[in-house]
Recover the amino acids of this structure.
């Protein structure tokens, strides 16, 4: 009885009800801890929330759900079954990939189907797909323990398992250079490297270890939770509440409270919360620059954050259309003919492209609940620069809307303007000002070698005692699977520190 009361006395406050915050809340509450989440938005999910209006429903951010095994294990750890709590379907084809240079791939996680698809573009490259899968299966197996462990200092870089995996990671090569060893056709090189955009990076700069991203798609599939990826957030929130977690919505945090170098709670617009530990699930750089005084920070000051490399942003259109879009698959990706130029315009020139690559989700093909009968809910994403002085979105928004609508015609979608019954646009300005994303960089800190592992803000935050980080701004990085892994790492570290068995 005494032991239980000691555990119950451990109070945790979590800033942000994003997927990382919700996942860690489940794990901590299941061990008897007193957990409260404060969230400034009116709904849970953060970037994995949703937009709903007039019978249309859209995911705000992520639409691909990869590698559900990690979330499966988190649910199992708290005595629940993810597949029962959040029904989902595995997509086949996974997506349609259209090349501005000509040709397309109907990508499938069925190996034989995929080999046949590749052979349509480049017969001599087709057998190499099996080699790619075999090699990356080994790479993921070797590197997975590194993704599951915290990197809290230089000593962690010298772990035997990390040193042993370096030959498989090939840190001296870019992702594009790595895929060029498998496929000679430039279109195929792009087909297995565009996934670096999940990290907001160019495949010509992204480290080669991230070939595991495309491998995961083909090895474990791409999944659609019924109701969209926000169903994962609402499902986690439901389970968290059933485990005793208190979730306060519409309650922005104004500041983190400190006693010396120790975080002891937060002050919101409505109340003050004291806790034994504070979990930061808000966008890392935005949270540091708005909730923690600059004078208190040493490694992650405003000045140092300004020098860090951040991901690209996204220009978003959420379109409720009259009529179905049978010409579209569930997921559709257009890769512009001048892909290198498009990336250079985004990452270096910080200007808008006239012929950008883009992505369209047509979820009603799989899930009719996303729109009224006889209608479609299209999610259109165009990668663009994060906020930069070269682009004034108050002037460019209307013009880039026209560019995005014109690009839809490349996928065979006609008469879009006349069919629109609902529309919302989100620009990098909106990501920063409305959602709280630093520089509007929707994929967080970039994932170059100089901003990974212990170079990233650490799960047990190095600046302050009693503060832990979860989400895309900490280790292992951005993307739902690794965000969920950050929650597991953070929970383990906190329970170790607070001596919760």
């Amino acid at each position: 009885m005494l032991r239980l009361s000691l555990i119950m006395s451990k109070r945790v406050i979590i800033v942000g009800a994003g997927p990382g915050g919700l996942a860690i809340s489940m794990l901590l509450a299941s061990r008897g801890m007193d957990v409260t989440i404060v969230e400034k938005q009116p709904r849970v999910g953060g970037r994995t929330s949703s937009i709903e209006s007039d019978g249309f429903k859209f995911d705000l951010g992520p639409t691909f759900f990869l590698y559900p095994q990690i979330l499966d294990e988190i649910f199992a750890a708290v005595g629940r079954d993810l597949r029962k709590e959040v029904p989902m379907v595995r997509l086949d084809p996974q997506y349609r990939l259209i090349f501005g240079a000509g040709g397309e791939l109907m990508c499938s996680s069925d190996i034989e189907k995929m080999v046949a698809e590749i052979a349509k573009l480049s017969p001599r490259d087709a057998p190499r797909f099996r080699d790619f899968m075999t090699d990356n299966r080994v790479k993921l197996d070797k590197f997975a323990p590194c993704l599951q462990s915290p990197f809290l200092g230089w000593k962690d870089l010298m772990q035997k398992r990390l040193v042993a995996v370096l030959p498989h990671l090939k840190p001296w090569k870019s992702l594009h250079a790595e895929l060029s060893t498998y496929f000679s056709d430039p279109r195929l090189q792009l087909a297995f490297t565009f996934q670096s955009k999940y990290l907001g990076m160019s495949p010509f700069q992204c480290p080669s270890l991230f070939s595991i991203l495309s491998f995961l798609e083909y090895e474990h599939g791409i999944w659609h939770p019924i109701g969209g990826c926000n169903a994962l957030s609402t499902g986690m929130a439901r389970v968290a509440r059933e485990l005793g977690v208190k979730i306060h919505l519409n309650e922005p945090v104004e500041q983190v409270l400190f006693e010396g170098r120790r975080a002891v709670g937060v002050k919101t617009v409505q109340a003050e919360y004291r806790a034994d530990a504070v979990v930061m699930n808000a966008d890392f750089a935005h949270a540091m620059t708005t909730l923690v005084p600059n004078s208190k920070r040493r490694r992650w000051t405003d000045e140092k954050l300004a020098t860090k490399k951040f991901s690209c942003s996204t220009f978003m259109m959420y379109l409720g259309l009259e009529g179905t879009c049978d010409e579209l698959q569930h997921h559709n990706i257009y890769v512009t003919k001048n892909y290198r130029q498009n990336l250079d315009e985004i990452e270096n020139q910080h200007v808008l492209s006239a012929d950008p690559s883009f992505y369209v989700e047509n979820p009603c093909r799989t899930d009719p609940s996303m729109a009224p009968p006889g209608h479609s809910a299209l999610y259109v994403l165009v990668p663009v620069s994060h906020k930069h002085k070269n682009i004034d979105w108050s002037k460019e928004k209307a013009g880039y809307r026209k560019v995005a609508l014109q690009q839809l015609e490349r996928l065979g979608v006609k008469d879009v303007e006349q069919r629109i019954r609902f529309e919302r646009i989100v620009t990098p300005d909106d990501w920063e000002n409305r959602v709280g994303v630093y520089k509007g960089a929707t994929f967080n800190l970039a994932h170059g070698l100089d901003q990974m592992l212990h170079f990233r803000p650490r799960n047990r935050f190095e600046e302050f005692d009693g503060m832990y980080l979860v989400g895309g701004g900490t280790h292992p990085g951005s993307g739902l699977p690794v965000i969920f892994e950050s929650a597991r790492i953070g929970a383990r570290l906190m329970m170790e520190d607070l001596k919760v068995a």
